[in-house]
Amino acid sequence: MKLWYLNHYAGGPGIGKFMRAFHLAKAWAEEGHETTVFVAAYHHQLETPEPLPSDKRVDGVRYVGLRARRYSGNGVGRVLNMADYCVSAFRLRARSDLAAPDVVIVSSPHPFAIFPGWWLARRYKAKLVFEIRDLWPLSVVEINGTSPWHPFVLLCGVTERFAYRVSDLVGTLLAGAREHVKQVVRKPPPCVYVPNGANPGAGEAKAPSSASGVAARAQLETWRKEGRLILIHPGAQGIPNALDRLLNAVSVLNGDGNAGKIGVLLVGEGGATEALKRQSDDLQLSNVAFFPTVPYHEAMWLIQNSDVGYAGARNIPGVYRYGISFNKIMDFMQAGLPIILPLKASHDPVSEAGCGIVTGSDQPSDIARSIMSLETATAEERAEIGQRGRACAAEVHDYGRIARNYLEAIQGADRSTR
């Protein structure tokens, strides 16, 4: 089969850190199926500030960069970038260098690519798969606090209903999302659970060479010599990551005389970074260090050399009752790191693997207790917890297995009902 995979923020080696599209495409290629990944030529998750070329191959996976303007932040520019991506996708029908697809998969944090995806699937008489990564507009309302009557939220709701009605199959990264789909449309399409997987290349962690990575390594090694428990949070630093609660927890620990026992590495950037730095200064948190984003393999080195992984998020039962699928949890599991998950969610991999502490709350006092629980554990006890995560990542979250299950569901989907 020939599969077209529309993923606005798709990553891959030398492209970006979110590797899901790459690993699925590579696994399908090994099964004899050709996959083309359509990614925005510019988006904020790229490894370099330069736009992607219109055509690029990475380890046998073809990437097509779709024209989309530059932007910064989460304002109008980003929305226009989404619109550019969708318009460019509509124009794919005119390209003579692309073989007609048998399957069109629409996978994006925003749902709007379903419109060109549906149009392309109809033109090529291909199956249409809508891949749920985030539940829009539910996530926008619950996490960001946006009014359910906001025009953007209403547009997301219309788009979501349309996607479920026209798709032959829904692929979901959230184990309980099938129930959500049933609530949105009267006759839901079949669903298949296809979670984020463990990154097969994560073992190729490289000692940091970037300026930010070298500085983070130096801080880590200093704390290691001082015998501290090193907790790391890599990745985005936005409102949904709720790192302000982590800083408040560190303040609680420091107030109890534990400042010299722990060190917190925050490696990444986002809309909340400057506010978090001000909060850290106000609380006089000398045991918290901020570093800009580093390349993926450097981040994996820092993770593998830390003691605890922190999967920051706000505790929002309304969203997480359908499950979670955080990329950083997979990275922590594969690295064998005990994990702190500061929320309550159904189907969370930390509880299922027994590879860390799920607080059930994002209150600073609860986060502080979980940190000290792992600080007082022996290195052997932490290693045993981490090993359970590593085993689960290898057995349950292998991308080869996920890709095969996904393909079987696609092949079994009935196009005649659309």
Main attributes of the structure:
418 residues; alpha/beta; Rossmann fold; 2 domains; eight-stranded mixed beta sheet; six-stranded parallel beta sheet; 14 strands
Instruction: Provide the spatial order of strands within the biggest beta sheet.
Output: 3-4-2-1-5-6-7-8
How many domains is the backbone divided into? 2
Q: Based on the structure given, which CATH architecture of the largest domain is correct?
A: 3-Layer(aba) Sandwich
What kind of sheet is the major sheet? 8 strands, mixed
Helical residue percent?
40-55%
Helix and strand layout, with pairings?
Blueprint: E1 2-6, H1 20-30, E2 34-40, E3 56-58, E4 61-66, H2 76-90, E5 103-107, H3 114-124, E6 127-132, H4 138-144, H5 151-166, E7 169-172, H6 177-184, E8 191-193, H7 211-225, E9 229-234, H8 243-255, E10 262-267, H9 273-282, E11 288-291, H10 296-304, E12 308-310, H11 317-320, H12 327-335, E13 339-341, H13 349-353, E14 356-358, H14 364-376, H15 379-395, H16 399-412
Parallel strand pairs: 1-2, 1-5, 2-4, 5-6, 6-7, 7-8, 9-10, 9-12, 10-11, 12-13, 13-14
Antiparallel strand pairs: 3-4
Helix pairs in contact: 1-16, 2-3, 8-14, 12-15
Q: What would you say this structure looks like, in words?
A:
The protein is of the alpha/beta class and 418 residues long. It has two domains: 2-197 and 398-417, Glycogen Phosphorylase B (Rossmann fold, 3-Layer(aba) Sandwich); 202-395, 3-Layer(aba) Sandwich (Rossmann fold). 42% of the residues lie in helices and 15% in strands. It is built from 16 helices and 14 strands. The strands form two sheets. An eight-stranded mixed β-sheet has the order 3-4-2-1-5-6-7-8, sandwiched between helices. Strands 11-10-9-12-13-14 form a six-stranded parallel β-sheet, with helices on both faces. β13, α13 and β14 form a beta-alpha-beta unit. α1 packs across α16, α8 (243-255) packs across α14 (364-376) and α12 packs across α15. It is globular and about 65 Å long.
